[in-house]
Each structure stands twice: as C-alpha cells, then as structure tokens.
Amino acid sequence: RTNMGIPKFFRWLVRRYPMILADIKEENDVPPIDNLYLDLNGVVHNATHSNDPKKLERISKAKDFEVIWAEVVQYIDDIIHLVKPKEMIMFAVDGVAPRAKMNQQRSRRFKTAQERHELKKLADDALIEQDPELQVSDMFDVNSISPGTDFMVELNRKLDYYIQHKINTDPLYSKIKIILSGSDVPGEGEHKIMEYIREYKNSDYYHEGTRHCIYGQDADLIMLSLLSHEPNFTIIREEVKYKREQVEGIVRNEFIMTNNFQLLYLPVLRQYLDMEFKPVIEKLELEYNLERVIDDIIFFCFFVGNDFLPSLSVLDIAEASVDTLFEIYKTTL
Questions:
Q1: Residues of the chain under the 70 pLDDT cut
Q2: Residue 209 burial by CB count (10 A; 0-12/13-18/19+): exposed, middle or buried?
Q3: Which residues contact 92 (CB under 8 A, 6 or more apart)?
Q4: 143-171, pLDDT tens digit by residue?
Q5: Strands 212-215 and 233-247
Q6: Where does the record place the Xrn1 N-terminal domain (predicted)?
Q7: CATH architecture of 32-210
Q8: What is the pLDDT at residue 126?
Q9: Half-sphere exposure in the Cβ direction for 53 (13 Å, CA)
C-alpha cells in the first residue's frame, strides 16, 4: 500500500522539505489533536501484513475472521491511544470507488491474484529457513479487502460492535463523537473523510483552530489534506524503510514496515511553500495568496499520476520532474 496514491511522492517531499516529518518516540511527541480520522483500509492492510514471520504465518493460516480482527483492533487501539483525540474519531472504510479508480483497482487486483501463488512459495521458503515447522498454508487474500466481499461485510459488523463496546468501557471513547462510514457507503475512505471536513467547514459550529489528524499511508492524503486548506493538519503514518536490492540482475524495491509511527506536519509544509513561493510572486508584483499557490501545486502534481490518473510518460518524480514543474511554475507566472 505504500505505493498507492502518488508513486515516490512521499519520499521526494520529505527529502525536499525534511522538517515536515518527525518520529514519534513517546506519547508526548504527539501534539494535541481534536479530530482523528482513520482510513481503515490502510489499518486493515497494515494489521494483516508483517515483517515478523510468526505473525505473518498466524494471520495467513487464519480460517476465520477473529484472528485478523484481533490484529485490526490492536492496531486501531494503538493509534487512538497514541493520538488521544479530544473531540471526534471518524472510522472510514473504502466503499465502492468512482469508475476511474475501479479501472486501476481491477488491473491491480488481477495482478495481485496472479502474483499470489508466487508470493506464497517465497513466504514458505523464507519461513522454513527460519523455522522448519513454520509454513504458510494459505496466505490471506488481500483482494478480500474490497467492498462487497464477505470479509468487508463482517468488518462493518465488527466495527459497529467494537465502537459500541468502547463507548461503554473506554473513557477515551465515551467523551467524544464517533462516526463510522462503512464499506456500504460509496466512496473511498479518504474522500469520505474530506467530504466530512468540507461539511464541517460550512457548518455553524466550525472552529478555525480545529486540530485535525488523519491516519493513512497513501501519499495522496498529503494532497487532500493540503486541499482542505485547514491550517492545523497532521498525518500519522507508520514508518516505512526502503530497501533496494538486486537479485539475478533484477532490481527490486522492498518496503519494510517498522511498527514505528511518524507525524507529517502540514503546517510546516505550508510554511515551506510560503517561504519558497511568496518572494517570487511578490517580486513579480502579483497579488500573493498561499491558498491559490497550493491549489496550483496540487493541480500540476496530477501530471505525475495518482489513484485516478496515469502519469505522463515524460514525467517521473525520481528524475526530478516535480522540481522541474516547480521551476517552470515560478518562471511562467
């Protein structure tokens, strides 16, 4: 899932603006948060994938939902008790996606199913090397994390029960507003979250100082969060380490989840963008508006691709395409 959204964008962004990202080493490293939004497809994906062979083997052998659900619940609890939101938690599960995304999902899932047998063999070999008694007999099918599957129907039911149980037993939940948007509600999780934020901004009870935090690994969450134009927005995500290796002449990029959380500070990113573009625009004696600049940046970043649009063949983030777009933008204003 680390490849979803805008490929390579997160790594490029952190390299260009390094102070936007901070490791969470203890609870005090998390700033006060009012509203927490959980993209639950990312939670389920991370909870069912592991670098620990024994945990992977346990999940893969699961014949019922309970083993997987236990991992999902633990992951949700870890995030919520780390962030400790003061006003609201929103659980958003991917519903039926727009048609443009469906086309990408279909091709991606055909590929996933095709690779599944190969991955099973690789996992078996890796586990047997570490412990001859371990073997992945039937790997968990990630394609079941899709709207309309039995897995997602059961997930909706369990989430509803879980929230009711937590409201009655956990003081952290009982004092705040809880929203659940399940897979039976159309739209992707992150888009349903943004729809809620837009409605909140237009409501009578909107407070400009509201501190938002969204959980998710997808790089397009950065764009969506910027597009909200909310001044206090952070993204909590699991740290991913990138490993590049060459096997039999083939270069492979491996993404390793570390079980450590990081915070990406959008206010700091906004300051970076302000410092970079304000002098250029004011020098041209044009009216400067940071929000308009952010909209422009998001627009031309579409050209490097996202979940709905394929990238232009001539643009590749790894080849400094976004840097070039930034410079063109500055010189053509």
A1: 1-7, 49-64, 98-142, 242-258, 307-309
A2: exposed
A3: 37, 38, 39, 40, 181, 189, 190, 192, 193
A4: 777 888 888 899 999 999 999 999 999 99
A5: parallel
A6: 4-239
A7: 3-Layer(aba) Sandwich (3.40)
A8: 55
A9: 16
